[in-house]
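ok so i was messing around last nite and threw this chain in just to see what happens. nothing serious, just curious
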Amino acid sequence: MKDKKVQKVLEFIEEYVGEVGAMVFKKLLESGKEILDPDLSSELNIEENNVRRALYELHNLGLVNYRRVRNPADNKYIYYWRVDSDRINHVLLQRKKNVLKKLMERLEYEEGNTFYICPVDGVRLTFEEAMENDFRCPRCGEMLVFEDNAPVKQRLGELITKLREEILDEEKTLGR
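result:
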């Protein structure tokens, strides 16, 4: 995996799983092989329960897999964990599609409404909500002022365009 892509993956993991999850994933990625959870715990100097919790969350995201084997010494299961490099790109692509959907919904909301804002505390209301409150802030009673949301719509449009391009590029790369 390229350094830039690894950094994006680690940022994504830290956001969804936390710092421990990012550390665990990075260690698994760097090793390039299967590692037992107790070994990860000792190498990272993190409590075993926290490592396991991070591994299960990473597994739920589809970023790591495990192989379960019975320990001949005590007949308990032991888990060998590894990065599922085949699925990483697919998982990230799906996340981008989800973000794109939310951005498009937000743009539709911004385009379909007129907004008023309180100059004192920043409360933002749709025209209908402002009308119900006699164009006064429901918190402080200050008169609401019209908000031009054109910059918001423009920024959302830019983000949507950029994300669509990224998604198309990644779909081509993945052969979809």
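not much to say yet. The longest helix spans residues 85-111.
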